[in-house]
Amino acid sequence: MMKPAFTFAEKPYNRLQMVDLLHESEEMKWKILDYHNQDFVLKTIADDTRFNKDGHAVFLKKLPSMSRKHYIVYYEGRALGKLSWSPIEDGERLEELGYYLFNEEDLMGGLGLLMVSFFYHYAFDVLKVHSIHHEAKRSNKNSVRLSKHFGNRVVREDDTLVYFECTAEAYQARKDDVDALLREYFS
Question: At what angle do helices 53-62 and 26-36 cross, to 10 degrees?
Answer without folding.
Answer: 130
